[in-house]
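Q: Convert this sequence to structure tokens.
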Amino acid sequence: MLNPILPWQEQNWLVLNRYLHQQRIPQALLISGAKGLGKYQLALQLSQTLLCTHRLKTGLACQTCSSCTLFKAGTHPDFMPISPEEDKKIIGIDAIRGLITKLTLKPQFDSYRVVLIQPADQLNNAAANSFLKCLEEPNERTCIVLLSEKPQQLPATIRSRCQKLLVPTPTAAVAREWLKSQGITEHLDVLLSLAQGAPLLAQQYVSETLIATRLQCFDDWLKVGAGQLNPISLAEQWYKLDVKLVLFWQISWITDMIKCRYSADSASLYHVDLKQPLQERAKQLNLQQMYRFYDSLVERMQKVDTQINKQLLLEELLIAWLNLNKRS
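A:
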């Protein structure tokens, strides 16, 4: 059984439920929002509800009909999820060609057929152009749901043919209450700051013991700056972690240092618990050089999803961090 609608998604579900009640099901729906807000979970709720043959008065799926049973078993013939293959980051044209072939057939059940593309912004050019035909020539009783954290990366021709639903980032109070309901009571502010307000991402960080990993990375980063740790050795260690996350930490550490130089309030910092060491190091660094280092970090972050050598990228940044501390 799927989890209930998340508290910050209630307004989203009201909109979707209205579509269901009025029988105005979108032929294509683009659900967007930051990572860790439950877009996929919301899309699964919608998918199962569309496929259910005995929908409840609440608008949710009954969980007991044959369609729901097949959906929960992952074998419903009218539910077609599409995502990158395990060893790839993009959705290629072969997956879309296979989808187009399936869509030429009628749904096997009397309800809707649902296509779920996740993440839609990973369609390559050929796949996106081929997929556009599905939107231009919609099939009967078919709803195509696209999920994306970066909807602006989708071609305008695709975005313009979709109804749009934005999953909002909840207020800090709502996020904290939800985390407490999940049994998480420690480091709430730090977790939510690191997750940029996304509760599911904060929950994931707890399960991955990320707080301890971040503290170790921060300590090693300071040691590199002080010349006490070899940047090449640290880059080799960090390469085994989530490189994008490590880059975000570096960006946020520098951001917090710059804020400390302007005597910013603690509440505005990403790393509230690290204010004192950040403040102390910020006093020792040249502000303009910190800005330049920040720019280089952001530039590398934009390249991290490409074929760039990530270990070399980390080495360059850590050497630049060491040099920044030497020059200041």
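Residues 7-168 form a domain with the Rossmann fold fold (CATH 3.40.50.300).
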